[in-house]
Amino acid sequence: MTHAHTTLTPVGGRTAWLGSTFDYREDGLWQLSADELTEIDAALSTLKSHGDLDLTEITPDTFPLHTVGEFLARLRDELWSGRGFVLIRGLSRDAYDDDLARIYCGLGAHLGVIIPQSGNGEILGHVMNVSDLVDELVRGYRSAQSMNMHSDGHDVVSLLCLREAKSGGASRIASAAAVHDRMVETNPELAQVLYDGMPIMRSQHDAERGDGKIVTSGNVALFAKPDGVFASCVHVAQTRDAARAGYFQITPQQEAALDLFCEISASPEFYLDMNIAAGDIQFLNNRLIVHGRTPYEDHPEIDRRRHLLRLWVNIPSWPRRPVNQQDIYSMEDLPHWAIHRTPFMELPTRYLADIIH
Questions:
Q1: Do the bridges between strand 167-168 and strand 296-297 make them parallel or antiparallel, or are there none, so unpaired?
Q2: Furthest-apart CA pair in the chain: how many Å?
Q3: Are 232 and 322 in contact (CB under 8 A)?
Q4: Contact indicator for 197, 222 with CB cutoff of 8 Å
Q5: Where are the beta strands (DSSP E) in the chain?
Q6: Which residues contact 315 (CB under 8 A, 6 or more apart)?
Q7: Measured between alpha carbons, how far apart are the two ends of the chain, in Å?
Q8: CA triple 138-141-143, angle to 5 deg
């Protein structure tokens, strides 16, 4: 039974942008000034004066920023109610080694609370093609294949580029609010299906090391608008995994709604390709932005491959997600996942050494 769609209204505003209509370098890029870079270097010196602190010990107190800290506070507002993304440029990849990871965590700590990303407990993820170097089946971000539009966990996902691919590998983003508005305009019945939601399945590894739930206990809404504030939660592949595994019987209408979302978000009218250069940092609001990646060609040598660092950040000042979206982002997971982390495990030099050996 379909719901009356008279209650569905567009989001509109700056959050519902079309990638074909503007240049992110004009509206979405922050170039760090010489003074801001000097302040970041001073914060790094302060951090090192405390000894060899682990990444989890990097806080606004151990990595003090005034001007840049104020910018990051303003960034929270832009992520929440503006475009939903920003690209920060100006850090020199060649000027730092593992210190770039420390700086990255320092910036993240001023934005919000850095959280673990998987059952391995890592707070700094490595986005790199290692599919030919490990025995187990790897997740999409550890391969060179394209990635369809999706959300990541919790509030904000961020990427810092250490090294670009030989060719390809652009970060593709789209406004979930704009996709929502087009669906409401052209096919409100299918838009309502995404408001009703579907179950989502996650990896057995993350579930077993977290709250134990491999599949959500109820439907997770891809679209929600409590109190008029739009929030998306898009995990198409994991929803289809749940159906294939027999956790629910997906209907033709649900399939059609997922297909339509994928079709619109993959349209050149909607998406924006960002070429993230070495030293660039991208921040995305997972409630407003869906992201993917174009396929890429890599160098065979491991130390020349495309390599990005990833942060997941929760913003305490933001409202909690709608109730029908919280099931997939269990806060109970985080302390259980953190137990499996070992000190300094995410530093790039250590990560590469572990992969090679």
A1: antiparallel
A2: 64
A3: no
A4: yes
A5: 29-31, 85-89, 113-114, 125-128, 147-150, 156-163, 167-168, 171-175, 223-224, 231-232, 272-274, 281-285, 289-293, 296-297, 307-314
A6: 76, 79, 80, 111, 112, 113, 155, 156
A7: 56
A8: 60
Return phi, psi of residue 53, to 5°.
Answer: -80, 145
> Which pair of tokens denotes residue 233?
């939660």
Per the CB < 8 A criterion, the answer to whether 191 and 297 are in contact is no
For the stretch 35-51, pLDDT in tens is 999 999 999 999 999 99
- By C-alpha distance, which of 81, 64, 291, 342 is closest to 175? 291
CATH number of the domain at 97, please: 3.60.130.10
Per-residue pLDDT reduced to its tens digit, 190-247? 999 999 999 999 999 999 999 999 999 999 999 999 889 999 999 999 999 999 999 9
Q: How many CB atoms lie within 10 A of CB 129?
A: 21
For residue 85, give the amino acid letter: F
* Measured CA distances, 203 to 177, 190, 207 (Å): 27, 28, 6
Neighbour tally for 75: CB within 10 Å: 19
Radius of gyration of the chain, Cα coordinates, nearest whole angstrom:
20
CB atoms within 10 A of CB 321: 21
Question: Is pTM beyond 0.85 here?
Answer: yes
Bridge partner list, 273: 172
Domain that holds residue 259: 5-356
Torsion, Cα of 20, 126, 144, 291 (10° steps)? -20
Find out whether 87 and 282 touch, Cβ atoms under 8 Å.
Answer: yes
Smallest CA-to-CA distance from 106 within 144, 164, 57 is with: 57
Task: Report DSSP state, residue 217.
Answer: S
Total structural domains within the chain: 1
Tokens 């939660």 label which residue? 233
